[in-house]
Amino acid sequence: MRTSQRCIARLVFVVLLTTLLAGCGGKQLEIGMDAPDFAATSIAGKDVNLDALLKRGPVVLVLVRGFGDRDTRRQLDSLKADKHRFDYYKASIVVVARTRTTNQVFRFWDSYKRYMLGISDRPEKKIGTAYRQEWKLTGSGLQPALFVIHTNGKLAWTHYGKKPYDIPKNEDVLKILDMLQ
Predict the structure, then answer these.
(1) Three-state SS for 29?
(2) 139: CB partners within 8 A, 6+ apart
(3) Stretch 161-179: mean pLDDT, rounded?
(4) Which of these, 65, 102, 109, 181, has the minimum number of CB atoms within 10 Å of its CB?
(5) What is the set of domains in the chain, with CATH numbers?
């Protein structure tokens, strides 16, 4: 009897913890809200801030799970293939991952650095937290997110992935950029 009570207590604890942490990113950001400002150092060692990027054009902010993830690689390959289309809108692509900048990350990033800015959001996790990147306790962990930020600093589009592979198509992002013109 005592063992079954412990099992029930553990189950209740896990359910409560899962409920509390399932949306630990907080309330999602919405279209029309001010985009949270950020300043960081890119993987290449350059200072990056949202205000400076917005002076050049809209920003496509991509929050990924990590730089070694298969779904991330698929998304970055797709963005890289369509870079000329993003350039037409003068859009900067900024990719943020909660990954430490190690030699492995530098090697991974080497094939993408000409096409987009990469930022490691470690250890502070300020960007992912400000944009309320979600964490799912149910096994899939950190979820991808993507934001289109208008040159006026407002969010023009938001996408919060429900699964690691829930990544928007470039066509959808490009349609938003086209509407901003």
Answers:
(1) coil
(2) none
(3) 93
(4) 181
(5) 24-180 (3.40.30.10)
